[in-house]
Structures are given as C-alpha cells and as structure tokens.
Amino acid sequence: MKQEKANKIKLVKIWEILSQETDENNPMGTQTLLKRLKELGIDCTRKTLYADINVLNEFGYEILCTRGVSNMYYVVDRKFDMPELRILIDAVQAASFITPKKTKEFVDKIAHLSGSRSAEVLKSNVVEFNTAKSTNESIYYAVNEIALAIKDGKQVEFLYFDKDVNKKRVYRKNGAKYLVSPVATIFSNDKYYLVCYDDKHKDISHYRIDRMSEVRMTEISVNSIVYTKQLDLKKHKGQVFDMFTGKPEKVRFLADKSLIDVISDKFGEQIKLFSAPNDKISFTADVQVSKTFLAWCVGFGKDLKVMAPDNVVKQLKEYTTELFEHYNK
C-alpha cells in the first residue's frame, strides 16, 4: 500500500484492530500493534502511533493505556456488554421463525459485537435449543417489504400457506393473493406475526410471517381506518390468545392464588386482583373470545373459572361438553 493512502486509513485500522482484538483482560502491546499494522501494509513508528492514539481519544474513540516499557493498549467501551449479548443470542437460538442457516449467521454477528476475543467465548457457550426451526428462508425479504410498506403507508400482498402431511405447501384461497394494510409486526410465543387491517374481514387480522411467500409492497395506500383505529398493540396482544382473534368481551374470572404469576404474565402487571373467599382471587380482563381462549381457560381445570358474562360461560360449557363427548365416543 502506498504510504500516502496508508496514512489516510491508519487511524481507522488502529481503532479497528484494538476494538476487535482487545479488552481490559487482553491488552495489546506497542510492538504487536505495530506488527499488525505492518501486515496491513501500513508503516508506523512508536512516536506516530502514540500521536495517532491521542488523536483518536480526542475525537471520542476511547483507547485506554497501561504504561510500561511497552505500552499496553485496549478498548473497553462496547455498545453491548456480555450479558446483553448472551440474552440476544439465546433469543435467536430459541426463535422458531429463524431458519437454522440464519440462526448461525445471527449468532456470529451478535457475538462479534463484543470483539473477536469475547466472541469466541460467547460462541463456545451457545446452547442448541430443541426448537423446531422454520425452513422459509424468504422471511427476511418479507420482513423488509413489510417494514418498507409500514413506513410508506402502502398495502402489502402475499401468498399464505399451510403444510400438508408431506410437509408440502398448500396455499390458501386456491393460490390467490392476500391484500392487507400492515400495522405492525409482533413476536409472540416464538412466532413472528404481521398485524394488519384486512378489508375482507373489516377487522384486524394476524398472519404468521414464516407462512407467507411472494410478499410485495404495492402502490396502494393503506386503508385510512389504520390511522383512525389507533390500535393499542400492547393491549391487543394481551387480549388475544396465541394470536387468534375473536369477539371482544370483558370477562370476570375467579382463580386460585397459585395462578397470580400466570395471570400477571398474560394480562400484564397492571391487572387488578381482588381477594375472594377460599384463598381465591377475582379479576376482570378484556379478552377476545376464541376457541384458543376457551382452551386456555379449561387448561387450568378447577383453578380457574369464568364467572361472567353469561354468553362466555355458555360457550365454555358447550366447549367442555364437546370435549367430554369427543373422548367418550
């Protein structure tokens, strides 16, 4: 490399080497740093190196130094610390909508945010979660199209499929495309969903992004109701069960105190709980009544009971009767 070009890029390379290869436990000596620069075709002396590091520090690129016969330089200022990166890696490993190929790529990228030395430590401790991973590699293209459409206020179109017994795609609507007004994307129960307004159903709908293909932003503006409906996504997510929508109802429950944590996890810490006789609690929550909601209630057996409204109690009685008859045929 010509020295003129080398001088222009030298500061960048010094910062790059130190930020990727050092930390407080692994400083780099002057001679090693000069050698690393030499390998890149950049000639540098002790004196100019000292001056270059001072320049970097003056402009906010903090490089610490332990002085001695040979100065030891290192960088500790990271955008993420190790526990934060560990959480991100575990989240990627556990997410079923991320394909095996992309999982490996994401883990590598996240780990290297800590610098190359710490990256090896992070990757050596990666736990392979027993998660059924999606094989739909186009999900990343889909997410990008949806994000652009939300930003530009445009509708998106896509094909939507299920899987048959041979794990082959079976497209809904006989292969016709869906056209919806995107509102947001939501991560729920290890799945990634598009929340949108569906003109056909005249309501909010959810679609699993890993079951979408040929996703494309159109030139059609989103339905104006997207702006007037003012959907509270946090509240909405608390009302639906496994992203299945239903008729909104204000439901009153009676539950065993052992379910307090479960109730708080589902409906949020703000849910008001009231003491009831026989070591019970009562509470009221806005929910969307679907078969998934009914199954959720039944799953707690005698520890949870819907008290009102009457139409929801009736639906639960019919649901449990159907289950009883199903297993007694």
Summarize this structure briefly.
The protein contains 12 helices and 13 strands. The chain has helices spanning 3-21, 30-39, 46-58, 82-94, 100-111, 116-124, 139-152, 225-229, 233-239, 260-267, 291-298, 310-326; strands spanning 28-29, 64-66, 72-74, 154-163, 169-171, 178-188, 191-198, 203-208, 212-221, 247-256, 274-276, 280-289, 304-308. It is elongated, with a radius of gyration of 28 Å.
Describe what you observe in this structure.
With 329 residues, the protein is an alpha+beta fold. The chain has four domains: 3-74, Arc Repressor Mutant, subunit A (Orthogonal Bundle), CATH 1.10.10; 82-124, no CATH class; 139-231, SH3 type barrels, CATH 2.30.30.100; 247-326, Alpha-Beta Plaits (2-Layer Sandwich), CATH 3.30.70. The chain has twelve helices and 13 strands. It has helices at residues 3-21, 30-39, 46-58, 82-94, 100-111, 116-124, 139-152, 225-229, 233-239, 260-267, 291-298, 310-326; strands at 28-29, 64-66, 72-74, 154-163, 169-171, 178-188, 191-198, 203-208, 212-221, 247-256, 274-276, 280-289, 304-308. Strands 4, 5, 6, 7, 8 and 9 form a six-stranded antiparallel beta sheet that branches. A hairpin with a 5-residue loop joins β4 (154-163) and β5 (169-171). α4 runs antiparallel to α5, α5 crosses α6 and α11 crosses α12 (310-326). The longest helix has 19 residues, at 3-21. The protein is elongated, with a radius of gyration of 28 Å. The termini are far apart. 20% of the residues are buried. The model has no long low-confidence stretch (mean pLDDT 82).
